Amino acid sequence: MRGKPKPMINTSQLQIGSWVRHLGGGNELWQIDISLLTDIVDGLIQVEGEPLTTDWLKRAGWFYAHGWYHMGCNFEITQTNDGWELETASGDVIHSFNYLHELQLLMAGLGRPITFDGKIQ
């Protein structure tokens, strides 16, 4: 007997408003709402993470200066060979990540939810 398919993404990292890629139907970029989240958790829709890029950081309000991305708060983002790191202003690494939804989740958890300018490319 087959169980439901495993999701392509760790569903515990998703929240309403997360941006992900729908696998199928043109690999479209979707923002999660409650019905989509239910379908993802139930294995009815397969999604994968949207890779975090400098363009996404800029659209989220981060700006580049002195080798880091800043947002006017006590956090910085640096790019590494393996992805990205969220650090405190003193250089302590809080978390390493690679995807846009991970940044969204981290910032919401730190009390600094991010929004975008609405432009999707």
Describe the protein's architecture and organization.
The structure is a single chain. The protein is an alpha+beta fold and 121 residues long. It has 2 domains: 11-49, no CATH class; 54-109, no CATH class. The chain is built from 3 helices and 8 strands. It has helices spanning 34-41, 54-59, 100-109, and strands at 19-22, 29-31, 47-49, 63-65, 68-70, 75-80, 83-88, 93-97. It has a 5-stranded antiparallel sheet with strand order 4-5-6-7-8, with helices on one face. It has a 3-stranded antiparallel sheet with strand order 2-1-3. The protein is elongated, with a radius of gyration of 15 Å.
Query: Count of DSSP E strands?
Result: 8
Q: Name the overall outline.
A: elongated
The count of helical stretches stands at 3
Helical content class: 10-25%
Mean pLDDT equals 83
**Tell me about the biggest sheet?**
5 strands, antiparallel
Radius of gyration: 15 Å
Total tally of structural domains: 2
Report, as a whole number of angstroms, the end-to-end distance: 41 Å
Structural class: alpha+beta
H/E element sequence: EEHEHEEEEEH
Q: Strand arrangement, largest sheet? A: 4-5-6-7-8
- Share of β-strand residues: 25-35%
- List unreliable stretches of 5+ residues: 1-7
Characteristics of this structure?
2 domains, five-stranded antiparallel β-sheet, 3 helices, elongated, 20% helix, 121 residues, alpha+beta, three-stranded antiparallel β-sheet, 27% strand
